[in-house]
């Protein structure tokens, strides 16, 4: 039986690729480095903003990562919702899960202040029981710390918990924590990546997440 559903944010709940690309390219442009097409960011993101800022820089310019991070944050702080939108069907799924008494959490590698702002902007403050992002002193996914903290807060066992995300980072996090996992193939990565990472289920639509949760509830 599933008691706790933990969602990744970018590529799972919201399509934020264009705004992440715009903020990154703003920093690169300011620093005088080449910009990248939006589609390329599908593989730049996934391990937190600082890693994103390192990845977008030229190989011989990694020493500018701190400056790139500052410029990214400056831009993203006021432009995080320019083009970002929840994926179709996500809000309906969340309300269905909530109505069925399942606890909802967000576990993102995005800086926690941005994670909270985006979740509140698009989903309000009452839908999720816990919203967690990257904070100093806690390792990022695929380390299971953020997922384990959510389970501990709500007294949920790994068998009662499902991690839902769009990349191998999320699936590896679930495996490390011993929880169920669902890979969302509408996100930034591919079904092949999710399968190779060991996703227990794949979902083409949010409705299929509900089906999987129901199956585990009945098991």
The side-by-side strand order for the widest beta sheet comes to: 5-4-1-6-7-8
Distance, first to last CA: 7 Å
Amount of helix: 40-55%
The gyration radius over C-alpha positions equals 17 Å
Major beta sheet summary: 6 strands, parallel
Number of E-state strands: 8
Order of helices and strands: EEHHHEHEHEHEHEHEH
* Tally of separate helices: 9
Structural class: alpha/beta
Task: Write a structural description.
The chain is of the alpha/beta class and 219 residues long. The protein contains 9 helices and 8 strands. It has a 6-stranded parallel beta sheet, sandwiched between helices.
Keywords:
6-stranded parallel beta sheet; two-stranded antiparallel sheet; 219 residues; alpha/beta; 16% strand; 8 strands
